[in-house]
Amino acid sequence: MKKVAVLLADGFEESETLTIVDILRRAEITAHLISIDSELVRGAHDIVVKADAILGAETSQYDMVVLPGGMPGASNLKQSDQVISLLKEMNSSNKYVAAMCAAPIALAEAGLLENKQFTAYVGYENKIETTGTFKEDIVVVDGNLITSRGPATSYAFAYKLVDVLGGDSMKVKNRMVYFNSFNAE
After folding, report:
1. What is the mean pLDDT of residues 4-22?
2. What are phi and psi of 94, to 5 degrees?
3. Would you state the torsion angle of the CA atoms of residues 32, 181, 175, 145, taken in this order, to the nearest 10 degrees?
4. 131-165 as b/e, with b when 16 or more CB fall inside 10 Å?
5. Is 46 helix (H, G, I), strand (E, B) or coil?
6. What gap in Å lies between CA 108 and CA 79, rounded to an integer?
7. What distance separates the 2 farthest-apart alpha carbons in the chain?
8. Is 184 exposed, middle or buried, given 0-12, 13-18 or 19+ CB atoms closer than 10 A?
9. Per-residue pLDDT for 13 more than 70?
10. Contact 1, 30 (CB under 8 A)
11. How confident is the model at residue 179 (pLDDT cuts 50, 70, 90)?
């Protein structure tokens, strides 16, 4: 079974984080909330979440690492040497690295956006210094790198994560009444 580490830092975007974990678990993919420092983590909108574990060397054994956005959560991820090291290790092992909203700033800090296509929150194309190519797509996949725009795109992002991990997102979409709710495809 595939395992996903969803990183938590103070100021994370709650709707993105919990939607990602929820959809991955519905698809029967192991998804753990991994805090970068303490067991209880306060989100950008004052919702406190209890992490499943604290970031450590064993996190690199996961198949995918996901960075939700939110501020100052994304900045806290970017400023963590341990997070940057993990991102580089996951990328060099050709494991999946995913980020959404403001969190691609951490990918840029780790040098992972160089010569890659990516997306991020509105306006972040001007804040991220890289030779990569910014796209306005809802979700962008470039090799092992997966990025998305913001809170409203978290469903599409999470379903794409399910698909790249070999799960059946269509089954989850149908159970969640996704098509009837959003007239989405």
Report:
1. 98
2. 60, 30
3. -40
4. ebebbeebbbbbebbbbbbbbebbbbbbbbbbebb
5. coil
6. 12
7. 43
8. exposed
9. yes
10. yes
11. confident
Q: Token pair 């060397």 is at which residue?
A: 57
Residues assigned a catalytic role: 101
One-letter amino acid at 183 equals N
- Between the CA of residue 162 and those of 4, 24, 66, 115, what are the distances in Å? 10, 6, 12, 25
Query: Residue with structure tokens 């990602």?
Result: 20
Stated pTM of the model? 0.95
Closest CA to 78 of 34, 54, 112, 48: 112
Kindly report, residue by residue over 48-96, the tens digit of the pLDDT: 999 999 999 999 999 999 999 999 999 999 999 999 999 999 999 999 9
